[in-house]
Amino acid sequence: MWHDSILDTIGNTPLVRLNALASDLPCTVLAKVEFFNPGASVKDRIGLAMVDDAERKGLLKPGGTIIEGTSGNTGFGLALVAIARGYSCIFTTTDKQSQAKIDSLRALGAEVIVCPTAVAPEDPRSYYSVAKRLSEEIPNSFYPNQYDHPANAQAHYDSTGPELWEQTEGRITHFIAGAGTGGTISGTTRYLKEQNPAVKSIGVDPYGSVYYKYFHSGGEFDEAEIFPYLTEGVGEDILAGNMDFSLLDDYVRVTDKEAMQMTRRLAKEEGLFVGQSCGMAMAGALDWMRDHAGELTPEDVVVVLLPDNGFRYLAKTFNDDWMRQHGFLEAPRALTAGDVLV
Ligand code: PMP
Question: What was the ipTM of the complex prediction?
């Protein structure tokens, strides 16, 4: 028994019940653990789907170059497909992404260009603009643009959604996830609501991102409320074409500190060694469930999607110095006159 290539191992990730963190809640809470994908994240699903689509449409030809702006995980997924199919990759990313992500992309043979985070999306230095410009300059190149490419949400409609429906035998009642491009939450929710319109879908956003604001205010908000934050891969400063708010029932938001601390608790209390956006999604999910505990019953099955793996954040969330430096971990208390040491 073997697979023809690593690409055949994408998808069919496990659902794992939370046993400690949600023990006060009346419902079943399950985690969809996406680090079981070969590139260790949910984004392998769209890397494959966008390249398949480009090959079908003749947009990507033998020997071609894939150019994409990525926080790291989509790049990893695209790089796996590029290796299996003989393409080169150039990725643009931002200086806030962990070094481990950049090094992993280079390990797969990709060229990585690091761009500043703190510039407007339309600034020629932004990672969106650099990817777009390179795709115009480099012949035989393909720029998937995961933000707007319909194959992104479609990949989740075709795989993540059906997996959740089958794995819960149609019992899933709530789906909770963070959003970057919005592909995961929009595609998965669209499939689930087609099976059962009563399924509720809740988005989780970091403070500083536009999505929570758009959902609750329809676009009327103060620009000062959009600011850089540390949680990687989720939230946006633009409205991605793959984000479909009409499918969502609620949106909650989480601070960087809550996200980082919950990421550590998932590892310590559930054995789920996952990334920052997983801690963010779970912190938001637990808040939402506690706020709605009166409506939840033992029949409810809530699925929280955990996008990636903890190894990518060893130098950040899982490093005490980094956590203290950002005020996410209280420094050990200084000794005072009243302390008794034995
Ligand atoms: N978490 C991480 C770590 C990611 O890299 C991404 C993708 N940027 C997401 C969550 C969000 O997924 P999506 O783009 O499908 O909304």
Answer: 0.99
